[in-house]
Amino acid sequence: MRALALLLVLLSLPAQAQEIVRGPTRPQALAALAPQVDGVVRHVAVAEGERVRKGDLLLALDDALQQARIALAEAAAANEAELRQARVTLAEASAVLERTAAAAGRGAAGEWEVRQARARVELARAGVESAEEKRRLEARRLDVERAAAEQLLVRAPFDGIVTRLDVVAGATVSRADRLVTVADLSVLEAVLFLPASVWPRLRLGGTYTLDLAAPVDRPVEAVLRSVDPVLDAASGRFRAVFTIANPDLALPAGMEAALDLGALGR
Questions:
Q1: In this structure, what are the phi and psi dihedrals at residue 223, rounded to the nearest 5 degrees?
Q2: CA-CA distance, 105 to 99, in Å (whole number)?
Q3: Residue 239 — very low, low, confident or very high, per pLDDT cuts 50/70/90?
Q4: Cα separation of the two ends of the chain
Q5: Residue 97 burial (CB < 10 Å; 0-12/13-18/19+)?
Q6: Are 180 and 167 in contact (CB under 8 A)?
Q7: Nearest partner of 236 among 173, 193, 178, judged by Cα
Q8: Residue 180 pairs with which residues in a beta bridge?
Q9: Which of 14, 36, 98, 201 falls between 20 and 30 A from 74, CA-CA?
Q10: Predicted local confidence at residue 18, as pLDDT
């Protein structure tokens, strides 16, 4: 019903009015960020309106407990005592086997004693392998604890501007809370719903003039980035996205953009 009402309104407009199609502009990237875990905010590193680079720290949750876990994991990963002991045991067992084998060659030791000495070497070698594997596991555990610490940080997902900040240090937050919003305004997108009749006149990658509304009130060049290949059957329109270069961030997002269909030619 809504699409039908829109169609009737469009048909009732003068032909000249139907030549102008308007739509909103938006940032090319917009992210409302939440923490990956629940916790208490320890530090807020940015303010609204501040420019950030991808990977910049925006805020940090309290990490006292996690840092203690990292310290324990570091100590365990650095501990070589068990491995050294296993290597000494292997060296001693190997020496005993060598002496026993030599004694057996002289008839001073039996086959059973040689087998026992050889078994002790194998057990000692297994002890070394076990100690080495334990050290590798401790190193992996340290990596896991450090990754868990990184989850207590909220970082910028791309270059942009902090457009909204809804948190202060000391606040208790959850994964459902959207605390910081970052927008990339270096390129704006204008989303227009165009009539099917202009489809043949559009070219992906082509440059078109869009008239921006207040507070800009001037025309700009825009590039047609994408066209929805599925038309809306009720309205006979399709979605087109134009991009507007905004390297100096002089253009705000959210204003209206208008395309004069008459300027597209026939």
A1: -110, 130
A2: 10
A3: very high
A4: 31
A5: buried
A6: yes
A7: 193
A8: 33, 165
A9: 36
A10: 54
